[in-house]
Design goal:
With 464 residues, the protein is mainly alpha-helical. It folds into 3 domains: 17-100, Fumarase C, Chain B, domain 1 (Orthogonal Bundle); 108-204 and 218-351, Fumarase C, Chain A, domain 2 (Up-down Bundle), CATH 1.20.200.10; 358-463, Fumarase/aspartase (C-terminal domain) (Ribonucleotide Reductase Protein R1, domain 1), CATH 1.10.40.30. The protein has 20 helices and 6 strands. A two-stranded antiparallel ribbon has the order 1-2. A two-stranded parallel ribbon has the order 3-4. The chain has a two-stranded antiparallel sheet with strand order 5-6.
């Protein structure tokens, strides 16, 4: 296909430049958005008497036939510089001169800007829906494990008793914040650049508010230069995606450990595990490892976007073509990671007894022992010191605190009574930690209800 800009030039561009310049191999995925924007633009041109209604009808029929043929696999997208050139030239081939009028009062600069925003809006909604499904999956699992005791860790050392439900709610709150980050970025990007032209608007009497309503944007971009050169929303979505992937990676790292023989807390379903080519006994958590690895890939895509933008003068520069491959890869990676993560969690098995046994070791009820003495009237710092000495004593004798007899407790303080054994019971340790945000079953149920209420509100908002 001939280039749209050949009038100024007297010779063909070098084939190497064509290869470097062409974006159709990757921006072809914007075909639906390009046609959507073109339909709205043509409708506005006719409404403003810039083109005739007869031309509009031909343009609409032509664009819809192109869309249908692409989706039916009857039309191969090739031979053009980019998706915008391809659609316009194919339209002109089909309907003749009316197709040449479609580009009146617009530039490829504002065209690509509106295409990418439309595409991003659609994908943000997909990501949010998947985040909501992941949160719901965590809530459903948490409901079944409000009394599944396990060690909580600091520095990857057993620290205090918690429950699996309490851990799931920690991740649930992270993903809740991720959802809100995408929502906030969506609100800021919901402005329409079409009508900005190359950078300075147009002399035609266009109606940007009409086109804005047709395309479902909140408002037109307020400045035409900014309209064609802004990619802040790509950076914001990339940042939100990177934080989301970091949360997924942390969760995956946790589950990789839990799946190991050393922990034995969980097992992934066979459908979400792989084996070894040489070791027949292996069952590897490759899904978790891949998501953990792909987190770095998303970080790299975001860095590409930041670097591409950092030295650009206003307005549009060809460097900005480089946003597509990195940004598309970023969105694809996030969506695919979430799509796999959800069913992987839904089908995983959790070994309660192994978690409970691990919680019995490591003296994770030592803080509760110190709290016991404090409630009996001893200053906490003294109770802390005595409990530390008791832990050292128990380690030397290969006992847990619960295994010490009352005489051994009295070696350290006369404040200990028979009720110390109840106080050190892991169920008691968890149940009594009912402060706001704590691991007690009742408190975790409140946390679950809060997240489910949030999900319900999201459904209501999306249906409006």
């Amino acid at each position: 296909m001939a280039k749209l800009w050949t009038g100024r030039f007297s010779k063909e561009t070098d084939v190497l430049l064509d290869q470097l310049n062409a974006s159709l191999p990757f921006d072809s995925r914007l075909y639906a958005q390009d046609i959507q924007g073109s339909l709205a633009h043509a409708k506005m041109l006719a409404r403003q008497k810039i083109i005739s209604n007869d031309d509009l009808l031909k343009i609409e029929n032509g664009l819809k036939s192109i869309l249908n043929d692409i989706e039916q696999g009857k039309l191969v997208m090739e031979g053009a510089e980019d998706i915008h050139s391809f659609v316009e030239q194919e339209l002109t081939r089909r309907i003749g001169d009316p197709g040449k009028k479609l580009h009146t009062a617009r530039s490829r600069n504002d065209q690509v800007a509106v295409d990418l925003r439309l595409y991003t809006k659609e994908n943000v909604k997909i990501i949010q829906k998947l985040i909501g499904s992941l949160i719901q999956t965590l809530c459903e699992s948490a409901k079944m494990h409000t009394e599944t005791i396990m060690p909580g860790y600091t520095h990857l050392q057993r620290a205090q008793p918690v429950t699996l439900a309490h851990v799931w709610m920690a991740y649930g709150n992270m993903f809740h914040r991720d959802y809100k980050r995408f929502e906030n970025a969506y609100d800021r990007m919901n402005e329409m650049p079409l009508g900005s032209g190359a950078l300075a608007g147009t002399t035609y009497p266009i109606d940007r508010y009409f086109t804005c309503r047709e395309l479902g944007f909140e408002k037109p971009c307020d400045n035409s230069i900014d309209g064609v050169s802004d990619r802040d929303y790509c950076l914001e979505i990339g940042s939100a995606s990177s934080i989301l992937m970091m949360h997924l990676s942390r969760m995956c790292e946790e589950m990789i450990l839990w799946c190991s023989f050393e922990f034995g807390f969980m097992e992934l379903d066979d459908a979400f595990s792989t084996g070894s080519s040489i070791m027949p006994q292996k069952k590897n958590p490759d899904v978790c490892e891949l998501i953990r690895g792909k987190t770095g890939r998303v970080y790299g895509d975001l860095l590409t976007l930041f670097t591409m933008q950092k030295g650009l003068c206003l307005a549009y520069n060809k460097d900005m073509q480089e946003d597509k491959e990195a940004f598309f890869d970023l969105l694809d990676t996030v969506i695919h990671s979430l799509q796999v993560m959800i069913p992987m969690l839904q089908t995983a098995k959790f070994y309660k007894e192994n978690m409970h046994q691990a919680a019995l070791g490591g003296y994770i009820n030592a803080t509760d022992c110190a709290d016991y003495l404090t409630r009996k009237g001893m200053p906490f710092r003294d109770a802390y010191k005595i409990t530390g000495e008791m832990v050292s004593y128990a380690i030397d004798r290969k006992k847990s605190l619960n295994d010490l007899d009352l005489d051994e407790f009295h070696r350290f303080s006369s404040l200990f009574e028979e009720d110390i054994y109840q106080a050190l019971d892991l169920i008691t340790c968890v149940t009594k930690r009912n402060s706001l945000g704590g691991p007690s079953p009742d408190e975790v149920k409140r946390q679950i209800q809060n997240l489910e209420l949030f999900l319900k509100e999201c459904e209501i908002h999306e249906s409006i």
